[in-house]
Amino acid sequence: MSKIKIAPSILAADPLNLGKALQNIKEADLLHLDIMDGHFVPNISMGPAFVEACKRGSDLPCETHLMIEHPENFLGDFIAAGSDIITLHVESTPHIFRGIQELRANDVGVGVSLNPGTPLSVLDSIWEEIDLLLLMTVNPGFGGQAFIPAMLKKIKEARDLIDSRDKEMELAVDGGVNAGNVREIVSAGARVIVAGSAIFGDDNGADWKKFREKVPG
Ligand code: DX5
Ligand code: ZN
User: Fold this and answer.
1) How many Cβ atoms are within 10 Å of 114's Cβ, its own excluded?
2) Is there an atom of ligand 1 within 6 Å of 11 CB?
3) CATH, residue 193
4) Which residues contact residue 207 at a Cβ distance below 8 angstroms, ignoring those fewer than 6 apart?
5) 124 Cα: distance to centroid of ligand 1 (angstroms)
6) Which residue in 10, 93, 99, 200 has a CA-CA distance of 20 to 30 Å to 78?
7) 10, 30, 31, 34: residue to mutate for ligand 1 pocket, most atoms within 8 A of CB
């Protein structure tokens, strides 16, 4: 099995001590930055300036998870901020392909995300374009929610689909992952583990290796 990557979700870090949070998790694999607009999801978080600050404060590659309407209108800003991968929700735009083309043209990794209620079949015509598939395992918008157990079957189905095709693709899982369920999630086929509260907890990530020890691979 290839190495499992860990992507701390900075949403759960202490905003007053962001630099320290980034130092604490500097041995992780990539940063996961949650961008929320109060429309696509019922919460507001950070924007491009925050992404740029995280890039300055960390050597890790950065995946920018856009939970915003009309994401294609903002791609330029998030690319300029230094995103290495940008993840678009298929539910957020009728123009997902336009977004994908812009990311490709700018040499930015193409991430595509699905809400828990969205079937894998929506990916049929864009499959070849995806570098990272991000399956939401909570309803997007907030950290600290419980993993939706029905998503284990979806992770397995996505794993089978990926393995049956030629295209290399990362399978990432986002929402409610913790030390108690991460083994099962990896067994189902996830290879990138996004985690916020399980990593930053109430110590801003000082002890995050306790979580890492529970991640197989
Ligand atoms: C939720 C975000 C997640 C969130 C995960 O909408 O996309 O990345 O920060 O947080 P936890 O790991 O606490 O569920
Ligand atoms: Zn996220």
Assistant:
1) 20
2) yes
3) 3.20.20.70
4) 201
5) 26
6) 200
7) 34
Residue 18: CB atoms within 10 A of its CB come to 17
Our count of domains for the chain comes to 1
Ligand nearest to the Cα of 12, by number: 1
Tell me the β-bridge partners of 170. Answer: 132
Q: Identify the residue whose C-alpha is closest to ligand 1 atom 10.
A: 143
Domain that holds residue 71: 5-214
Cα-to-centroid distance, 12 and ligand 1 (Å): 8
**pLDDT digits 0-9 by tens, 17-46:** 999 999 999 999 999 999 999 999 999 999
CA distances from 50 to 32, 65, 71, 131 (A): 12, 13, 17, 24
Positions annotated as catalytic residues are 34, 174
Residue range 137-195, pLDDT digits in tens = 999 999 999 999 999 999 999 999 999 998 899 999 999 999 999 999 999 999 999 99
Task: Name the pTM for this structure.
Answer: 0.98
Query: Which residues place a Cβ less than 5 A from the ion ligand 2?
Result: 34, 65, 174
* Strand ranges across the sheet with 192-195: 5-8, 192-195, 170-174, 132-136, 109-114, 85-89, 62-67, 31-36
- Residue whose entry in the numeric block shows the structure tokens 């099962």: 184
The response to whether residue 5 sits with its C-beta less than 6 Å from ligand 1 reads: no
Q: Which residues contact 108 (CB under 8 A, 6 or more apart)?
A: 79, 83, 84, 85, 86
